[in-house]
Amino acid sequence: MFLENGFYPQNKFWKYLVGSIIIFSASLIGQIPFGIAVVAKTIMAGKPYPTTNEEVMTVFEPNMTLFLLLLSFVFGLFGIFLVVKYFHKQTFLSVTTSRSKVDWGRVLFAFFVWTLFTAGATLLAYFDSPENFTVNFKPIPFFILAIIGIVMIPIQTSTEEYVFRGYLMQGFAVLAKNRWFPLVMTSLIFGMMHIANPEVEKMGYIVLIYYIGTGFFLGIITLMDEGMELALGFHAANNLVTALLVTSDWSAFQTHSIFKDNSTPSVGFEILTPVLVIFPILLFIFSKKYQWTDWKEKLTGKIDVTVKSNQIDEINEQPNV
Q: Is 59 helix (H, G, I), strand (E, B) or coil?
């Protein structure tokens, strides 16, 4: 069982707090190259150092900015690996899934399902209101964007999933000895981590409903499926396809995407549609394909903290990934 993978005798909740600080510190180190590059560029150009986030984002062209921004997640993911392997003495597989190996079929299924939906919804919005979009496609910048996105964005989304649906979910399970508390806490923290996004500034804090709802959705599919594979695939598709298809002046990532959304950001029912309509449909699709049962127990039940020595040995012998 996925959450039970964290119940090693040596694992205490305080270790997850220390581990989180280490992971966060690794991510901060990963931001240093961006800072150095900005300083060097402004000195060479004879310009003052940018003082706002908007100014920082325009120092380099979008592809370079995207690459430097995503670089911190490479350091973050490496930090997670080190913390799990050497601080908690667990395999990386144990914070990924309850299965004997990663089920890449699940990752790809979630990726392609959400890719089809996102692409379809974007095209529908374009044909319904073409006046809100301009074609932003430039072959060479888009090709470079595609390379950066395909390589780096899955690292970014995987880092977030390993932190929230893997590491912290198991950590809160160790603390609470149940399933609902890790689900609630990781979803709330995941949503609040997006509070600095430009979308929140433009549309208000009500947008956090979407981010928190997404956190709950990803947590639910992780608990029901006893592993992160579906969450990994969904999250990668969401960020990668969006980056390739559409950008705007107020989105978190400015990219050389195919379309640019020129509409004025507003808050309406579309904020609630994914949470109340689309995510439940996806839950239905996943549940039928993977034959999920016993929802109440898997989402809210208590955890049997009795871990026999032979079970611990079996977990320790699982191959790393």
A: coil
